[in-house]
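Summary for the steering committee. The consortium agreed at its last meeting that each partner would contribute one worked example illustrating the joint modelling workflow. Our contribution is presented below. We chose a case with several input lines so that the handling of multiple components could be demonstrated. No manual editing was applied between input and output; the record is shown as generated.
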Amino acid sequence: MHERIVTVANPAGLHARPAARFVRAAAAQPAEVAIGRPGQDTVPAASILSVMTLGIGPGERVVLRADGDGAQEALDALATLLERDAES
Amino acid sequence: MNVPDPADPDPAPGTVVRGYPAGAGRATGPVRWTAGPVPEPDPDERIAPEDRAAACERIRAAAQTVSADLAERAETARGACAEVLRAGALMAVDPTLSESAVGLVTVRGLTPQRAVHDAAATAARDLRSLGGYFAERARDVLDVAARMVAVITGRPVPGVPLDGGPHVLLARDLAPADTATLDPRTVLALVTAEGGPTCHTAVLARSLGLPAVVAAPGIDRLAEGTVVLVDGSRGTVTVMDPAAGVCPDGAGPAGTAGHGPRGLPATAARRSPAPSPAGPGRTLDGTPVALLANVGDPEQAAAAARSGAEGIGLFRTEFCFLDRTAAPGIEEQAAAYRKVLDAFPGRRVVIRTLDAGADKPLPFVTAGDEPNPALGVRGLRTARSHPGLLADQLTAIALAARQAAADVRVMAPMVATAEEAARFAALCADHGLDEPGVMIEVPAAALCAEEILHPVAFASLGTNDLAQYTLAADRQLGRLAELTDPWQPAVLRLADLTCRAGARLGRPVGVCGEAAADPLLARVLVGLGVRSLSMTPTALGPVAAALAGSTLGACAAAARAVLRSGGPEQARRNAAGPV
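What follows is the complete predicted structure of the assembly.
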């Protein structure tokens, strides 16, 4: 199990468009990825409804967990996306 | 010409269905209906344990079908709408949705359609409880579920048809998302049974340059494939003789051919495009009338410049604030405004300050507990509770204005009193913005136009809201379309009062509502004293042509005749008369 804490850069937080981008990227990973608030339950990162229902706002810290093949690479890719994803 | 008879299921050629003009231009083609809403699946039906595994497979298959369909629609959709559709494609195959539906089938024996319906209702409720823009996505989940239910039950999937050749699209009503996914290459015109002249369908149809007629309940009896002529300038839909649509080479009637992408006779499907204006707006005898564009983002501003607009009469700044949980910073706003200003160097650009509330709620501004949001804290009123928001926006506008070459002015929406106008003007002066203006869209503002115009430099009539508030009729309600018609004499008398006050004080009065996009009404407004008309760019050509064909005297005569009219129909006839 690999784990990383990152700060969400998108000024809209993690909903609708940014969430869709994140979920697409997560679903493309061979590893199982979960996302949540530090110290709380996580949800599957490949589920847009679960990710949106977290209600993550801009500047919030989230924990990413990955398990299985390519877990480290998955965390690298998704952390970069969350930390750099500007409003587009 | 005859009116459709309810007893006659198949209207004869020549039958005219009347509605409200909502997008100039004419088009002929076979009609296609959008599918209506999917009925709610029976909550009490149960399926036998041995059938449940197959039912679960149907849910998973429907999820894949709907996801693929939404992804395909996203390919042809534009901008934000494409993003919404892509998110919908993800939702359809979201394990949270389909696996909780599968659970309801396996454990409780619900039908697959009811299970999808209930699973989506739960997901929608979770999103709604988060409020703001998360809550808005609740509708998307329900829409995705309705599509899955349609696939499972073998009903037509709600929404606009994707396949087939050029057609006139008919609908009871269209959601803004439907209108935004229309492909103007295959949709020749839009006709809805509901909606009003200023509804979102009308606004979007105009921005796409599609002829459109709304509030035409008589279309209910037009069968799929009937060939019609839509006149979006007069608000009529005329049933054509199918024989007239037969090709010389003997192809079938246009109505049947319309289902295939290629088989349509050339004569049966066509649209006459609206021409572009040939230069600055002026009447036949040379009085200049600035023909400006209404725009909502940098992309539209660039398109407006290409279509010959002389400037921007209404730049809606909401795009900067939508889809966010907090207001954007000053630098970010300034950069966004700058992109719009750069499309019109040396030209007039009127920036409207944030118009949040009512039909455009923002989570960080709008209180969710207003029983009547149209009469709530919206427009300039939000500055009372959030003064920093307006101050920051004016700072950003001033910053962008200093960096750009455009002639920048600002105006405030929903001003109701002279005190509000004076306060806004003072605030603009504090920010170095010395050409403040106000929108006149509340009857009180028109009635006290002289006092309201005194502290500011100009006014712009927002005829959509002015009609809604003057006639006390919701502009989204198709049943009340007759009341929210900008041709209502009461609305035009308020416009007249405003123009007279403007003339006495030397303050120019413009129009930036949909009224400005109606060529016949544009002449009337010029006759009342309006010297700038701001509209969706596709309307510029027809309006320019109408003005170029009328002297100022003819416009004034039309205006006098209209002010004396008893109702919108008589007003239209009177306006057409004196020329």
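Chain B touches chain A at residues 80, 83-84, 86-87, 90-91, 94-97, 123, 126-127, 130, 133-134, 137, 141, 323-326, 328, 332 (CB under 8 Å). Chain B has 21 helices and 17 strands.
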